[in-house]
Structures are given as structure tokens and as C-alpha cells.
Design goal:
This protein is an alpha/beta fold. It has one domain: Vaccinia Virus protein VP39 (Rossmann fold, 3-Layer(aba) Sandwich), CATH 3.40.50. It is 32% helix and 21% strand. The protein has seven helices and eleven strands. It has a seven-stranded mixed β-sheet, sandwiched between helices. Strands 6-9-8-7 form a four-stranded mixed β-sheet. Helix 4 links the parallel strand 2 and strand 3. The protein is globular, with a radius of gyration of 18 Å. The N and C termini lie far apart (45 Å). The model has no long low-confidence stretch (mean pLDDT 92).
Length: 285
């Protein structure tokens, strides 16, 4: 077990996050964000993925291309981003979405929401952000609401696109199914869902057993596999056929399953960062 995993298993979430952030707080004293790219968060706030200005910008531009070319997001779309983090996939949309569009970003981590409100909403009021105070043992241990009771605070048929990146990879299957039902409700007819998962099937289990994958979901629990039995939501994989059945049940038709590079699948080289996890594309029927 790695030192990081040992600390994560033994320390409270707040202390673990602080220890992880301290080296980046020090680096922020001597490293400044590049100019000419719009707002960029400091390194200490890049808690939702790899830290570094170059990779932060690269991930954003890559995802923007995915939104335009694969999801076919239009500049006038209403977009709901559940799990927007610090905005690494949000900031490129500042130059793409027009004055008719709406972007709503939600996250359980207050740090990202506060930074985005100060640096994005203050400049462009068509981009709005708020905390989704959902309980998570590791990511939001003081959350007021359990995931299975979530009601998205929007009317039916509100959004053209709903996106979730690295959200369902930390959720239990029953909670995923509940979220998907709410997402189907707030999507407009023919609206699209783009969401990342860790998916498994017999072929992928075989690859894991042969050490051919970059992540090993070695621990099997009811309807899921995890890397960490002490904190299962640290990383959760679900069966791909189960997920397709749930999508159909809530009224979302799967258009494509882009299996990720984590499990050894070949991916579009233009999506080397975006398609590390598996991506589901679905449309409201």
C-alpha cells in the first residue's frame, strides 16, 4: 500500500487534504500562473486533478474539443456541470458559450465554488456556481444531504447538456441510478448526457487479473468493485451492462461507450487526458 493510501485510510479528510496541499501552497509563493489565458486558479486550488498550469490548460482545451466535436454542444446551450471542481473543464467555455447560453456549475467542495464565484461569475453572469452539499465520507464528510435524496433544484426540461467528470467514479450504484433519474428529468427532450465512469465486464476483469490495467479494482462488493475496501468511494467501478440498463430505465438512450485508456483500450489520441476514464454518451428519449 502506498504512503498516500495509508494516510488516506488513517487520517481525517480535512487533515489529509491539508497535508496534500501544503507543498503546493509553498510552490504558489514562487510560481505565478501564465498570462493571456483568462482566469487560472493557483496550484493549491487544483484539488480535482493533476496540478500544473500546462496540464490544467491542456485538459481544458481537450475537453472543449470533446464538447464541440463529440457531444456537439452549441454556443447557445444551457449546460449543467455536476462536479465542476475548480473549473478546469469550465474555463475554456468562457470563450465558447455565447450570451444566450447558461452554464451552471455545482460541486461538493466549497473551495472550488468560492474561487469560481470570485473569478468567473464576477466577470460573466451567465456562469453561475453553487455548492451541492452532498455527504461524502472523504470529499465532504460534513455534507447535509445523502446522495440518494438529491433533488436537482431545476425545473423539468431545463438543460441541453449535463456533464459529470469523475463524479460517478466515487458513488455507489444505487446513488448513481438516483442521480441519473434526476438528470433525465432536467434534460430537455433530446438533451445529452456526458459522464465518466470506471466500467468493468468480464474482459476488463480478466485484464485486471493479468495486471494489464492502470487501476486494479480488486475488491468486489455488491454491484461494484473498488480499489479501497476501507473507503470504497475512493474509486468505484460498476458493471457496464448494469449501467446501460439503468440508463434505459430512466429514459436515457446510450449513444456511445468510449472505454478509457485506464483499462488498456485504444482511444482517440486527441482525448488522451479526457478519455482516461470511460465515457458514456446518452440522449434523452
Amino acid at each position: 500500500m502506498s504512503l498516500k493510501q495509508t494516510l488516506k485510510n488513517s487520517l481525517s479528510a480535512s487533515i489529509f487534504h491539508l497535508m496534500r496541499d501544503v507543498p503546493w501552497i509553498v510552490r504558489d509563493w514562487t510560481t505565478k500562473p501564465p498570462t493571456g489565458h483568462g482566469p487560472i486558479p493557483p496550484l493549491r486550488h487544483m484539488f480535482d486533478g493533476p496540478r500544473g498550469y500546462e496540464i490544467f490548460l491542456q485538459m481544458g482545451q481537450e475537453t472543449l474539443g470533446f464538447y464541440k466535436n463529440v457531444v456537439e454542444m452549441k454556443p447557445s446551450d444551457a449546460v449543467l456541470d455536476i462536479g465542476c471542481g475548480i473549473g478546469r473543464k469550465t474555463l475554456p467555455l468562457l470563450g465558447y458559450l455565447n450570451d444566450e447560453a447558461l452554464y451552471v456549475g455545482m460541486d461538493i467542495d466549497r473551495r472550488g465554488i468560492d474561487w469560481l464565484l470570485r473569478n468567473v461569475t464576477s466577470q460573466s453572469q451567465r456562469f453561475v456556481f453553487f455548492q451541492l452539499d452532498i455527504y461524502s465520507k472523504f470529499y465532504n464528510p460534513k455534507g447535509a444531504l445523502i446522495p440518494g435524496r438529491l433533488v436537482l433544484p431545476f425545473p423539468d426540461n431545463s438543460f441541453d447538456v449535463v456533464a459529470l467528470w469523475s463524479v460517478f467514479t466515487h458513488m455507489y450504484p444505487d446513488d448513481i441510478a438516483h442521480y441519473l433519474s434526476e438528470i433525465a428529468r432536467v434534460l430537455k427532450p433530446s438533451g445529452k448526457l456526458s459522464a465518466s465512469f470506471f466500467l468493468y465486464n468480464q474482459e476488463i476483469i480478466g485484464r485486471m487479473q493479468r495486471s494489464e490495467t492502470k487501476v486494479n479494482f480488486a475488491h468486489e462488493l455488491p454491484n461494484l468493485r473498488t480499489t479501497n475496501p476501507n473507503i470504497p468511494e475512493d474509486a468505484i467501478a460498476v458493471n457496464d451492462q448494469w449501467l446501460l440498463d439503468v440508463l434505459a430505465h430512466v429514459g436515457l438512450k446510450a449513444q456511445d461507450v468510449l472505454y478509457g485508456s485506464w483499462s488498456g483500450h485504444a482511444i482517440d489520441p486527441n482525448l488522451a487526458l479526457t478519455n482516461y476514464q470511460d465515457i458514456i454518451l446518452a440522449q434523452k428519449t
